[in-house]
Please model this.
Amino acid sequence: MNSKDLKNLREDLIGELEAINQYQKHIDETDNEEIKKVLSHIADDEKEHFAELTKLIRELDKTQKEKFKKEEL
Model:
């Protein structure tokens, strides 16, 4: 396990969460249905990225993997 890789992945994970929150805020603030549609699609992509990064972290960090197992995730 490379700790620098894990640190970078976790920083990337934070970025994805921030992006999801930002898109949701903008979705909530607009009445334009086209904007809502496009931003919702982009937010869904960010959620997929979050899942992919989480999977990588789980595979690379033995402790994290055990915690996921413990929580049945």
Remarks:
- The chain has a mean pLDDT of 96.
- Residues 33-60 form the longest helix (28 residues).
- The chain has three helices and no strands.
- Residues 3-7+14-65 form one domain.
